[in-house]
Amino acid sequence: MTAISLLLIAFGTAFTLTPCVRHLARWIGIVDQPNPRKVHKTATPLLGGVSVAMAIGCTVLVACVFGPQPHLRPPLDLSIVGPILMGAAVVFCTGLWDDVRPLPVWVKLLCQAVAAAVAIGYGIRVNHLSLFGGSSMELGIWAIPVSFFWILGITNAFNLLDGLDGLVSGLAIIIAAANALFFFSLGDMQMMLLLLVLFGALLGFLPYNFNPATIFLGDSGSLVIGYILSVTAISSAQNSVTSLAVIIPLLLFGLPIVDTLLSMTRRLAASVKLHRASRARLKDRIRCASAMFEADRRHIHHRLLAIGFSHRHAVLVLYGIALAMAALAMLSVLAQYRNAGMLLIAVGTATYAGIRRLGYDEIEFLQTRTVLRWYEQTRVNRRLARVLIHAMLVALAYWGAFFLKYDNPGSNALHTWYLHAFPIHLVMQFLLGAFPFSRSPYVT
Hints:
By secondary structure, this protein is mainly alpha-helical. The chain has 16 helices and 5 strands. The protein has a domain of 240 residues. The protein has a 3-stranded mixed beta sheet. The chain has a two-stranded antiparallel ribbon with strand order 1-2. A hairpin with a 6-residue loop joins strand 3 and strand 4. Helix 15 packs antiparallel against helix 16.
């Protein structure tokens, strides 16, 4: 009941405040003007992040001041969530300043580094990692730089993705909900409640931000969202006896990570080409290097628009991808990371195929002297894509049925039997699909 109450308070606050903030942004002239690089055609108010941040702040205040009973401990403990909120306040002020008067890139990065240092200074860091939930690896002195670059990277990834109406807010809703479920399974109630507050605030804001948007998040919103999600993703690793399985954040944050890596790769490739030009002037080289931090119209969502998707359909397709990745992440947790390596390889191969279909020629260097060169053959592409999709569906159906069928799937003997039977089941499915009689409606 406490979790539902906090979610509803955040939702109601954001839903009520957003029209007021929108009117204020128009009145004082803080609007995003259309230009050739942007998708929207009319001047749209910014400062949507203000309503989201105020909804989060008001809900946390209610939770901390007005607890369930005067003699009971408040549901949100400021000693745990306080450092996250302090860092979020730093990036919010930075983003708000940038919305009102654009800041240099180095100033924004410096403020984000301060916010990351706040979280790390209070002990929120990844001290040990596990690739697929098995044996862990102690990071030692590398815990601080790994945590630092993770926070900075994810924070900016959400800022870079903020290019279509409702894209960042919708993706953040999906990731926050999946992370809240994950923390609930770990027994980390503080992180779960904080993520539910973020979930409710974004849910109340999304009706005004979905296409056609009447207000944008702005940097004040996208930076705060990215910061809270990045810090909460690693905070429970410090307080949990289990290691942080790398596959979980890779799947949950797969779309922002891939888009950011693509942006850096193609801009770096353009910079390298310019540097190789014999007549390139120093001024041009410096300008090209700084362009790595500038916005453009070659992100994944822009490529979807370029190949014929409508604005809404492009956003809904990306929602669907995020939901599928979140479902795979949760299934990996429920299955105790069995076959996680195969799952990650399948997702990575499908990602590469999708990137190539979107027309990113800058990643052609990945084919040079690698086994990926053969992948560009059309027949192999189609066949391999079908095989991978079929294998993923078979795995999802098999393990999904396993967890639905048994009340106590934690039995080691049961796990072992099903784990050994899975390859046989997979082979049989492919054999059935190879014969004509498998097309009969009576064969499933």
